[in-house]
Amino acid sequence: MIPLHRAAAATLAWLGCGSAETTRDFASLNAEVREIVRGSCGSGAAPCHGPNPTARSLDFERLLESDTLWEAMADVQSCEYDTLPLVAPGEPERSWLMVKLTGQTDPDGRLRFDPDSSWVPAPDSCAVGVRGSYDFGTRMPEVGQLSPREIETFRAWILAGPPPTAQ
Q1: 130 occurs within a structural domain
Q2: What is the rounded CA–CA span in Å between residue 115 and residue 140?
Q3: pTM score > 0.90 for this model?
Q4: Residues 6+ apart with CB under 8 A from 135
Q5: Which of 77, 84, 135, 162 could form a disulfide with 96 if both were Cys (CB 3.0 to 4.6 A apart)?
């Protein structure tokens, strides 16, 4: 079985999404990601990431307003699968966000994800155990679907990361 992140990368490459996107600067990618998030994940689009988010969910409205989306996700442990950060700067294939954006789903719309066999969820994990397996939620966004170009924009944003801050 091909690991999910490699399958997603191969799919993006097949669709013609490629390295030209990665040369764009972080500021322009960040602006595009913010617009995608505003249209797909904010309170106007889906109830899960609005001003009254569910427990442990990101409040995208607040993060967009304060321009802290990157800071809220970069190197922050995922509560669903704590082996991966939400965003691993420079490593989209190790970012839980990419799993949530590109993962396969079952007929009920639940994310099909096979965790590492040695993974043991933390006691406060968001992954809910059901009959010996875990529920990792749905692919995002929950309502609608991102285009291949939008997914590539997220990948390039993670790959680029912000420029280092001056000391």
Answers
A1: yes
A2: 18
A3: no
A4: 110, 127, 128, 129
A5: 84
Mind spelling out the 3-state secondary structure of 22-59?
HHCCHHHHHHHHHHHHHHHCCCCCCHHHCCCCCCCCCC
Q: Mean pLDDT in each 10-residue stretch from start to end of the chain (167 residues)? A: 45 43 78 88 58 58 79 89 94 96 90 90 76 79 88 96 70
- Residue 138 phi/psi, 5° resolution? -115, 165
Note the pLDDT of residue 141: 86
Number of domains in the chain: 1
SS3 7: helix
Burial of 138 (0-12, 13-18, 19+ CB in 10 A): middle
41 φ, ψ (degrees, to nearest 5): -125, -10
User: What DSSP state is assigned to residue 106?
Assistant: -
Q: What is the residue range of 11's domain? A: 4-39+73-114+123-160
